[in-house]
Amino acid sequence: MTKQSYPRDMRFEAVFNFRDLGGYLARGGQTVAWRRLFRSSELHHMTSHDMIKLKEEIRLCSVIDLRNSRELEPFSLLNNVRAEYYNIPLTDSVNHKEDVYQDFSNMGQVYSYYVSHEGFGRRVVEALEIIAEPDNLPLVFHCSAGKDRTGLLTAIVLGILGVPDEDIIEDYTLTAPYMKALINRWNDDPKAPAGFKHVPEYILEASPESMAFFLSSLKREYGSARGYVEAHGGEGSLLHRLEKALLS
Questions:
Q1: pTM for the full predicted model
Q2: CA–CA separation, 90 and 124 (whole Å)
Q3: Does an H or E element contain 65, and which?
Q4: At 17, is the secondary structure helix, strand, or coil?
Q5: Could you count the other beta carbons within 10 Å of the beta carbon of residue 167?
Q6: SS3 of 7, please?
Q7: pLDDT digits (tens, 9 = 90+) for 187-236
Q8: How far is 19 from 123, CA to CA, in rounded Å?
Q9: How far apart are CA 2 and CA 239, in angstroms?
Q10: Going from the N-terminus, what domains does the chain have, and what CATH number goes with each?
């Protein structure tokens, strides 16, 4: 029997970079299930039409917001979706020294720097515990652009499920076409942080080289995504529950 498939990229009026993580070949010949786990950019710009799509088409149960407290913007439309909301600020424990990005030349190096922080790993495990609970699915996780923190969590989840590196890299690069629209939005938003205007150009890219560097670094330091999670307190039962919840 042929498994049903869906469009990966999902179009909204005011939400960019929203896509389904289903369909990838995973461990043991299984497949990541469609319509259970999604990744996205920030949601607080969504329109009422977008809200209806989340509620009636996707039937969203949960949202994991990976942004830090200074980035959060209250908005009421999400309440109408009746999705459970979790804020897990992935990088709140990362040492954001002013010139940190000048020390690197691609985002893979930045990502490796992020995951080296103990607090980052604990936050990842916290997010995975939520994702592994079937009652929380369908679920979307997001940050601001849906590129960096979202890209890291995606890479770790897909790695745990046994998705090949080349598919993880390709999924990461699907963000690239949305960056111009997101940058334009930030330029037009007086509330948007001005810091992104002064960062190195590579910060705003989603290159395959960056994700390939990160995956190689993760394997070198921890053996695998599973090894990274276990090193930060994630038990074997968590990895099993993730497989059970997300594979078909």
A1: 0.92
A2: 7
A3: strand 62-65
A4: coil
A5: 15
A6: coil
A7: 777 666 555 566 778 888 899 999 999 999 999 999 999 999 999 999 88
A8: 22
A9: 27
A10: 12-246 (3.90.190.10)
Range 181-190 contact pairs with CB under 8 angstroms and sequence separation of 24 or more: 181/16, 182/16, 182/17, 182/41, 182/144, 182/145, 185/16, 185/45
Sequence-separated (6 or more) residues with CB below 8 Å from residue 29: none
CA distance 38 to 137: 10
Question: How far is Cα 78 from Cα 112, in angstroms, rounded to an integer?
Answer: 33
> For 83, what's the count of Cα atoms within 13 Å in the CB-facing half-sphere?
28
Question: Which residue type sits at 53?
Answer: K
Residue 80's nearest CA partner among 49, 37, 38 is 49
CA distance 141 to 62: 8
Nearest to 152 by CA among 206, 201, 231: 206
